[in-house]
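Example record

The entry below shows one chain as it appears in the dataset: sequence first, then structure tokens.
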Amino acid sequence: MIRYQEKNDLFCFIVNYHAMTTIQDGDLLKENTLNATMDFLSLGMDPEKSTFWIQSDVHQVAELTWILSVVTSVGLMERGTSYKDKLAKGVSPNMGLFSYPILMAADILLYGGEIVPVGKDQKQHLEMTRDIAIRFNNTFGDILVIPEPDIEKDTQLVPGLDGQKMSKSYKNTIPIFGKETVIKKKVMSIVTDSSGVNEAKNTNCALFNIYSLFLDENEKRVLTDKFETPGTGYGDIKKDLFSTMMDFFQPFREKREYYEQHKDDVFDTMKHGAEKATEVAETFLIPVRNATGLNYRV
């Protein structure tokens, strides 16, 4: 995201509508929304170089979601692997979770998104967005932009403590803006096998993959040698990872502390972002209303 805003017209937002599929606690949703916003700003999201807002502050996305839903087949939604995976993990099903890809499609199509940076797990949802947009265009005319995915190979799927996709839903995250003691405890709990100090270790594991996110190619080779050469225990590697993480995130953690003490700055920033996003949303939604007949005055 940060690289995109340096050379592209980046649109980025906090997906609090999407969060409602699993959170029905108003206070928790407000807290999570604000925390996520401060996280993004602390990590380098620049409102002067991008359009950055809270999803629910631009109500047009709900309107487009409904319009798209009437040209989307139930069968397309039923093929969603993410929905099936969540059900298999015990998430309680609801219509929001089922139709999640339609809201995601509206998120993209409302702003004329041409390229969408997504993780590997979201690839199918973007393919659904393309299908929905094509179906709409075939029905009402060539109106919506058909987006393309951009999946970065090295970071297409960030692993969690247990090796699954890192997700709060799976409770396998590392809170980079949390207390040092909490972060260290999380790092030390990364799941590993039973290989001892004097045994070679498999690099196909959560610990190696998480550590690699902070390393260049030469540093990865050094880490690979450390894993494959007997003499170093997992505990020592985890301590090294913790130190590397804290050094890397220190400037971001300091900026995060600033926003904690100046939340009015955050609110002003997001209001400005919502105004920018709303203006663009209306530009793309007006021809949709006209083509579908919702704008009956034209």
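Notes for this example: The chain is about 55% helix and 5% strand. The chain has two domains: 2-156+263-292, 168-259.
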